[in-house]
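hi! just following up on the protien thing from before. the input was this:
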Amino acid sequence: MATTPTTSAAIDEADFDAPALPLDRYDEVPEGMEKVDGELVEKTDVTINHAAAQGNLVYAWRSYIISSGQGGKPYPEAPCRTDQQKRRPDVAYLTAELLAQYGQPNIFPQSYPLIGEVASPDDKAEELFSKAREYLRSGCEEVWLLFPENAIVIIITAEKSLIFTEAETVNTQTILQGFTIPVAELFA
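and the predicted 3d structure came back as:
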């Protein structure tokens, strides 16, 4: 569902008729939204299972970053630019090298190297796979698609796609080397 929030310029009390600034003048993407095809689109239908999987992935990546000493940071809902849109992936990992290079801008200027997207019940598979390809074209090296309702993780890189079920252990392919986690733990 596309929504366009009303955004107005800073005004004083005497000027209540100030025109709204065009959305392309803003470098921010409002919380809970992505800019898709030039329009702000609300990220909707987040379930408890979705939120749990997102939180579990952030926690697992962060714990591994600390224990392995690889550095970098995981972020929930951190905005980035792709070759087409301004996106807000559910989970994003920024390497220590990119963190040193870019710092922490309001919107990361490319896709994060490792991204996790958690499917909501109303997400269309075709749209999730399109989003994964968009991330990969824009600097991402590895995308994790998590399907909490079915306890499945699909990893997509430029070279391959892998499917992991609840009884299996999933592992990173290109970024955050050595990270593994049982799929069942992601959806616990």
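The longest strand covers residues 142-147.
The CA atoms of residues 77 and 89 lie 5 Å apart.
cheers
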